[in-house]
Design a protein that fits this description.
single chain; about 220 residues; alpha/beta; six-stranded parallel sheet; binds tricarbonodiimidic diamide
C-alpha cells in the first residue's frame, strides 16, 4: 500500500508496521509537570493528544503492533551517566524532586504516560534510559521478532526523543515515517527544522506524513 508522504510516497505493508508513541509522559505534557516547571509551553505538546488518540483507535482496530515508550531512570540512577546530571543546576536534574515526584525516575507520577493515551493491557511499554528508543532497550529484538520493517513515529519531543529514535531506526534498517501533527516540540522552530532534516536529500532519515494520510490507509484496511 502506498502512503502519501514527503519527500515522496512510501510503501507501507501494514503487517510489517508498528505504531510508536514516544514519551507521552505527564512530566512532559501536563501543566503541573517538569517541562512546564522549567518554563516550557506544554500546550505546544498537547496538540498531539487528539490525533494520537484517533490513531491509536484505528491502529488497535487494525491490530497493528503498538509500542509506547517512557524516558526514565532507575531510582538509584545506576543507569544514568553522570554527564547527564552535571550540566544542569541542582533542582532541575534527573532524580531531583520535581512537581510530580523525582524527575524522570521510573515509578514516579510524572514518569507515567498521560491518561489520554494510556496503553491498553497487552501493549508494549518500553522503558528507555536514553533519548533514542533503541539505546539500552530490547526494541531492535522486539521489532525483528514481530517482522516489523516500518515505524510510524508519534510522541514528544520532535527534536529530541523522536528524532533520536528516527535516526536509530534508519541506521538499523527500519523505515521511519513521522506523523507531523502527532509529534511536537517545546520549540516550533526546532520542530520544523527537525522535520526538514528528516525528509531532506530524498529522505535522508525517513519520511514525513500526516495522521490523516495514515488514518486513510488504516481505516480502509480494518481486518
Ligand atoms: N522525550 C524527550 O524528548 N525528552 C526530552 O528531554 N525532550 C526535550 O525536549 N527536552
Amino acid at each position: 500500500m502506498q502512503i502519501t508522504a514527503e519527500p515522496h510516497s512510501v510503501t507501507l505493508d501494514l503487517d510489517a508496521t508498528a505504531l510508536m508513541v514516544i514519551d507521552m509522559q505527564k512530566d512532559f505534557l501536563y501543566p503541573n509537570g517538569f517541562g512546564a516547571f522549567l518554563g516550557n509551553d506544554v500546550t505546544l505538546l498537547q496538540r498531539t493528544i487528539r490525533p494520537i488518540q484517533r490513531l491509536l483507535t484505528a491502529a488497535r482496530m487494525r491490530g497493528l503492533l503498538i509500542i509506547h515508550t517512557r524516558e526514565g531512570h532507575l531510582p538509584d540512577l545506576s543507569d544514568c551517566p553522570p554527564t547527564k546530571l552535571d550540566r544542569w543546576p541542582v533542582g532541575t536534574r534527573i532524580g531531583d524532586p520535581g512537581p510530580m515526584g523525582r524527575i524522570l525516575i521510573r515509578g514516579e507520577e510524572g514518569h507515567g504516560i498521560i491518561n489520554e493515551v494510556a496503553p491498553l493491557p497487552g501493549e508494549i511499554v518500553l522503558d528507555k534510559p536514553g533519548k533514542s528508543a533503541f539505546y539500552a532497550t530490547d526494541l531492535d529484538a522486539i521489532l525483528h521478532q514481530h517482522g516489523i520493517r516500518n515505524l510510524l513515529i508519534t510522541g514528544v519531543t520532535t527534536d529530541v526523543c523522536c528524532n533520536a529514535t528516527v535516526i536509530g531506526a534508519n541506521d538499523r534498517g527500519f523505515n521511519a515515517i513521522v506523523l507531523e501533527d502527532c509529534v511536537s516540540s517545546y520549540s516550533p522552530a526546532r520542530h520544523a527544522a527537525t522535520l526538514e532534516t528528516i525528509k531532506a536529500q530524498g529522505g535522508i532519515f525517513g519520511w514525513v506524513t500526516t495522521s490523516a494520510d495514515v488514518l486513510h490507509i488504516l481505516n480502509g484496511a480494518i481486518k
